[in-house]
Amino acid sequence: MTKIDVFAHVLLPDFYQKMLMLDKDLVQKMPFIQNPVLTDMDKRRATMPADTKQIISYVNANPEDYMAGKMAALLVTKANVELLETVKANSDIFAGGVAMLAMNNIPEAVRVIKEFIPAHPEILGVQLFSRHLGKSLADEDFRPVFEALAETDTPAWLHPVFDERKPDNNIVFSWEYELTQTMLELVQANYFQDFPNLKIIVHHAGAMAPYFAGRIDHILPESQAADFRKFYVDTALLGNSKALELCVDYYGVERVLFGTDAPLGIMPAGAGDVISEAIQALPLTQEEKNTIFYQNAQDLLGLD
């Protein structure tokens, strides 16, 4: 059986060096990027599980936070080409890539969705962050991106970032809150009503949503509570089978995709083994587990 890991990260060498030129303190701000498996594909290959193919996206370092829109979009374009070339050169271990966007240049972000991705089937969608440029992802300025995603039937991967307005951000809990808050904002902006075919894959098993299902169902209007279940989610919980069981109960087997956050979480290669064990421990049939391990990704992303 081949597993498809839908949420795995890279920090490819050329892009990494350009980001270090923009921010000499990047490593201090994001110590996890020192993991060489993010950058060195030979080391990546040596640590890859034999039965897994990954879909790769960049870690949360975005040129839009350092450069004006024209220059940010130019650097993002180069990063996306480097990602494309990496997927092509390593197609035995990578099932595809996820493009980066510069959200301070919306016309170029839309061009990536409407032109770059259709021209390159190895690129399966785009990565969005819980906040961009200090604003909610549901900010009206970003709406054209969602219109383009819906028009082209392009999936989005949702990754958290810290809300810099908060003084107590931490890697244990803050990102899960940020994901959940962003999901709420997208639902309350009626994006699933306006764009019925919108496909968003949320990192970390849908964050807080499965565990606060009662509050969602009883506090939100019925249509918005239903929309909360329209997200797709991965399994990146560092194990924790009981939590995954709640996730599957809430979203349904058909919306849960194997994803590990590799190579992060457990050094050096990530948490693939413990997450696989947690899925195997779920009270599901093997067919349902296989649906999570690879079938949902194949169906959602049009993979062979």
Automatic annotation (TrEMBL):
Protein keywords: Hydrolase, Lyase
Pfam families from the UniProt entry: Amidohydro_2
Domain (Amidohydrolase-related): residue spans on this chain: 9-303
GO MF terms, alphabetically ordered: hydrolase activity
Name of the featured protein: TIM-barrel fold metal-dependent hydrolase
Native species: Streptococcus loxodontisalivarius
